[in-house]
Design the sequence.
């Protein structure tokens, strides 16, 4: 069966420091990968998605970037964090390729980021 | 513009008191609607996919239905463990790979 791992679970970082959140998926190949952010009591905002290695689509202009160095690895980064980057970050995967049509997302357990 | 709107924002029910949550959407050429359950501090857990108007899916005390404009999540005789935030989501018109979410309904069931 497929599993998704996301770490760390919580993170407290000062303003201006760098960020690296990592997500890996097991049990599937060529998945679509996603990063979402969820503000307190709000819905999920799509940040980035990727349909393959090195292929990243950015949905919202911001202080963050994403990379996909391997098929099942997705990384969210920032060179200098802002206070407004605080939130709950969620990685997700769905079936890729021809199976991606109507394929639901499956989420990790998220990273709670607090920028101080 | 593609949009997903959920109502109510919050709902408090007594154990055993049935009700419905609403998800309305404005997407051209719907290619599926997803329901998720999210517990505090956790990632959303997939519940259902609905593909076409008239379709229904059931899981324990939950039943999801779909029309051309909206979806309902009916909860029958809920228990305290059904307390969670329920989210609905749809693929964008421009790309089925981009999934957009409503802001959710926070459901609380009192024993």
Sequence:
């Amino acid at each position: 069966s497929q599993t998704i791992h996301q770490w760390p679970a919580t993170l407290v970082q000062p303003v201006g420091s760098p960020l690296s959140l990592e997500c890996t998926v097991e049990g599937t190949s060529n998945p679509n990968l996603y990063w979402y952010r969820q503000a307190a009591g709000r819905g999920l905002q799509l940040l980035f998605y990727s349909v393959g290695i090195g292929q990243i689509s950015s949905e919202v202009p911001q202080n963050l970037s994403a990379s996909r160095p391997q098929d099942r690895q997705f990384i969210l980064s920032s060179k200098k964090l802002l206070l407004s980057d605080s939130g709950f970050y969620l990685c997700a995967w769905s079936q890729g390729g021809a199976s991606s049509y109507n394929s639901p997302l499956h989420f990790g357990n998220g990273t709670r980021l607090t920028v101080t | 513009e593609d949009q997903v709107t959920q109502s109510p924002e919050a709902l408090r029910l007594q154990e055993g008191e049935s009700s419905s949550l609403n998800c309305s959407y404005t997407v051209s050429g719907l290619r599926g609607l997803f329901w998720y359950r999210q517990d505090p501090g956790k990632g959303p857990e997939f519940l259902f996919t609905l593909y076409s108007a008239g379709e229904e899916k059931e899981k324990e005390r939950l039943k999801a239905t779909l029309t051309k404009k909206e979806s309902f999540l009916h909860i029958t005789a809920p228990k305290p463990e059904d307390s969670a935030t329920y989210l609905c989501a749809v693929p964008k018109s421009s790309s089925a790979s981009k999934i957009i979410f409503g802001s959710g309904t926070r459901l609380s069931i009192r024993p």
